[in-house]
Amino acid sequence: MIRMISLLLLSNVFMTFAWYGHLKDKGLPLWKAILISWGIAFFEYCLMVPANRAGYTGGLSGFQLKITQEIITLIVFSVFAVLYLKEPFQPKYLVSFLFIIGAVYFAFKK
């Protein structure tokens, strides 16, 4: 489980930069942003695929893997948005995350 979460965390860092890192450079042509994002996303896939395999062979269902990945994505993106994009974290986002955490609870409940 630690290996899977570590790989998911790292893959989401790459994914977040691939998808949103170009937003600050408004002068970057779209085609360049796409090519750079694809290059970064390659490393995301190199981490995400082994993470999903480790989780699945470790006994998690596909649904549980996806929900775990989404929580990690939200955490990584929140840090990215505040620190890199310099966007404020608003209370409404916290409420939204609490609802998603509720979804995680029900997905893992036996």
Largest sheet: none
Structure annotation, total helices: 4
Cα(first) to Cα(last) distance is 18 Å
Average pLDDT works out at 92
Based on the structure, what is the oligomeric state of the protein chains?
single chain
Q: How many domains would you count in the coordinates?
A: 1
Q: Count the E strands.
A: 0
Give the helix/strand class: mainly alpha
Tell me the series of helices and strands, N- to C-terminal.
Answer: HHHH
The proportion of residues forming helix, as a percent range, comes to over 70%
Distinctive features:
single chain, 110 residues, mainly alpha, 4 helices, flat
Characterize the structure shown.
This protein is mainly alpha-helical and 110 residues long. The chain has one domain (2-108). 79% of the residues lie in helices and 0% in strands. The chain contains 4 helices and no strands. The chain has helices at residues 2-20, 30-57, 62-83, 91-108. The mean pLDDT is 92.
